[in-house]
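Q: How would the C-alpha cells look for this protein?
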Amino acid sequence: MKQYFLPFAAAAVILTAGCQSKSQTNSNTQNTKDSTEQTQTTASAPVEGQKIDVSKIKPADAKTILARKQVPVLCYHQIRNWKPTDGKVGKDYIVEIQNFKDQVKLLADSGYHSILPDQLYAYLNTGAALPSKPIMFTFDDTDMDQFTIAAPTLKKYGFKAVYFIMTVSIGRKGKFVDYMTKEQIKQLSDEGNIIGSHTYDHKNFKKYQGKDWEEQLDKPTKKLEDITGKKMTEFAYPFGLWNAAGFPELKKRGFRMAFSLADKRDQNDPLYTVRRIIASGYWSPKTLHNSIKNSF
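A: Here is the predicted structure in C-alpha cell form.
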C-alpha cells in the first residue's frame, strides 16, 4: 500500500491542530435563523440513542432537508489535561478532563438527549420525531482518551456518540497520544455507539484521485466493518475539507451522510455536508452551551 502518513510524532501534532481548516468563528455564520421549522418532538419521540430502521427511507430533496432546523453536532478530539508542550493552536483541540466532564453534565442537566445518525437521517429526510433538545456527540481521530475518558463520562448520563476512526492509527502508541485498539473500537460499537470512517491517514479529501479512493475509503471501510461486523454508513472529512465532486464516490460506497465542520452546507447535497462545531479546549461549559445555541 502506498504510504501517505507522516511519522507519528509529526502526525500527532498536525492532527491535534488540524481537523479544521477555518476558524471556529465560522460556526456562527449559518444558524437556525435560516429555518423556521422546529425540530419535531412528541410524547412518543425516540428514546436516547435508539436504533431505528432507515433502510426504506428515500432521501428527500435538498430544499426539504435545508429547511429543517439543524441539530447541534459537536466534534471532539483529545480529552486530556494540557501539557507545557501544548501550543496555543493545539489547545483548541484538547479539552481538559474535568472541563469535558463538566460540559457533559451541563448538557445533561439542561435537558439534552443524544441522538445517533439513523435518527438524524430519518429526521432530515422525513421529519421523524426526535427527543427533546437533541444533540450529537462525535469524536475524530481514534484517540485512546475517547475510550478511557469520554465514553464512560457519556455513559454515566445515558449519552451515546459517533466515533470517526482513522485506521492507520489503530492500536498505535505515539509520543504525544495513544490510539484505540480494535477491541476497544468493537466494544464501543457493541455498546450501541456508532463507528464511522475517517479515512486511512487523514489525507485531504479534496485531493483524492486514482488509487486514493481505494486507500482512503475502500480499505479503511472494510477494516472497520471487519472489526465491528456492521456496515459503515457515515464519513467525516479530514480537516473538514470537502468538495462536491467527491460526493458520488461516497454515495456509490453506501455512505448515507458525511460530516464536515463549521462551513455552510452544500445546497444540492446537504446530507454530505452535515455541520459540526469543534468543542474548543478554551470553552467553559457555559461557553459551549452558548455556542451550541448560537451555531445551530
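The two ends are 41 Å apart (CA to CA).

The CA atoms of residues 60 and 125 lie 5 Å apart.

Upvote if useful.
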